[in-house]
Amino acid sequence: MCEQLCAAGLLRRRATGWYWPRPERAVDAIDLRGTGGKPLDIIEEDSGRVIGQVDMAAADHSVYPGAVYLHQGEQFLVDAYHPERREALVNRRRPGYFTQPRTIIEARILHEDAHKSLGRTTVCTGDIDLTTQVTGYLRRDEVTTQVWDENPLELPVQRMGTKAVWWTVPEDVAAEVGLSAIKLANAAHAMEHTAIGLLPGFAPCDRWDIGGVSMMVHPDTELCTIIVHDGQAGGSGFARAGYECAEAWLAATLQRLQTCSCLAGCPACIVSPKCGNGNQHLDKDAATRLLAALLEGPAQR
Questions:
Q1: On the CB side of 208, how many CA atoms lie within 13 Å of its CA?
Q2: Contact in structure between 55 and 39 (CB atoms under 8 Å)
Q3: Around Cβ 173, how many Cβ atoms within 10 Å?
Q4: What percent of the chain has pLDDT over 90?
Q5: Is the pLDDT of residue 145 over 90?
Q6: Of 115, 53, 129, 62, nearest to 87 (Cα)?
Q7: SS3 letters for the chain?
Q8: What is the CA 143 to chain-centroid distance, rounded?
Q9: Exposure of 199 by Cβ count < 10 A (0-12 exposed, 13-18 middle, 19+ buried)?
Q10: N or C end of the chain: which has fewer CB within 10 A?
Q11: What does pTM read for this prediction?
Q12: What is the dihedral of CA 240, 183, 274, 231, to 10 degrees?
């Protein structure tokens, strides 16, 4: 790596080692908040002060036009979003609602690094090509969380190569559990949420460091597939950690689904604060039966 940095002019080799060759400080070129370059500034329009920053990779999901941005307990409404200038203009308001982005996510499997059998499923890890697009946002009542309305947005598609762990649902398992196509998709979605929420118990991460996508029929596996991926371009090691401890991780996921005292789903099990579909199309009971069948053998209808 040092030789490559020398070839790029970022280091210079001398007899005693490698050295920074430029007059400016090396630290000024390093983004401590991530590897996506200079972050986007969130600017209070009336005062001109910068109240916060957000990585460009996350900006479309948090400071899109019309978003309610929360900073140190204060609510700000995003009035203008200029990603090309790396700034969002906000004003302090309390509109009586909070916002939740609606996102389309697709993940193509590029390369499989490793795989192993677990119960009646196969767990894999490798490279994926992830595309995301924020297509709109929901306004939800800040007290009841009831949806007021949905507002469309026209934001570009974002693309990122990263690492992921994924597992599939064989057709015979889905048939034994007795799930329709819709219930199978809802079960996979719920299983994905619960697994993401529990991975921080097995890998040194936060649920906001990872993401996921589930598909009833994935074009690359031709099976129902649940994918959990690193949120950093190139990968950050969390998905690989999930693969290494898949037995304990998915067993804990099943235990959470089986023992959570809620009736149909809550933030402790299948409800996610970052769901791109607004936590719609989830089925806790179907997810429990499906994961039990995958890990423990034939399931009862």
A1: 6
A2: yes
A3: 22
A4: 84
A5: no
A6: 53
A7: CHHHHHHCCCCEEECCEEECCCCCCHHHHCCCCCCCCCCEEEEECCCCCEEEEECHHHHHHHCCCCCEEEECCEEEEEEEEEHHHCEEEEEECCCCEEEEEEEEEEEEEEEEEEEEEECCEEEEEEEEEEEEEEEEEEEEECCCCCEEEEEECCCCCEEEEEEEEEEEECHHHHHHHCCCHHHHHHHHHHHHHHHHHHHHHCCCCCHHHEEEEEECCCCCCCCEEEEEEECCCCCCCHHHHHHHCHHHHHHHHHHHHHHCCCCCCCCCCCCCCCCCCCCCCCCHHHHHHHHHHHHHCCCCC
A8: 26
A9: buried
A10: N
A11: 0.82
A12: 20
Q: At 33, is the pLDDT very low, low, confident or very high (cuts 50, 70, 90)? A: low
Report d(CA 292, CA 301) in Å as an integer: 12
Please state the separation of Cα 224 from the chain's center in Å. 19
Query: Cα–Cα distance between 196 and 200 in angstroms, integer?
Result: 8
Candidates 253, 166, 182; CA nearest to 218 is 166
Give the C-alpha separation, 187 to 126, whole Å: 24
pLDDT band of residue 37 (cuts 50, 70, 90) is: low
Cα distances (angstroms) measured from residue 2 to each of 6, 134, 149: 6, 38, 53
Residue bearing tokens 């500034």:
41
272 closest CA partner among 196, 216, 203: 196
Within 10 angstroms of residue 119's Cβ, the number of other Cβ atoms is 18
Contact 11, 5 (CB under 8 A): yes
Q: What's the pLDDT tens digit per position in 197-228?
A: 999 999 999 998 999 999 999 999 999 999 99
Whole-angstrom distance, CA of residue 57 vs CA of residue 209 = 12
Higher per-residue pLDDT: 278 or 287: 287
Closest by Cα among 85, 86, 68, 64 to 77 = 68
CA-based nearest residue to 198, from 188, 186, 210, 189:
210
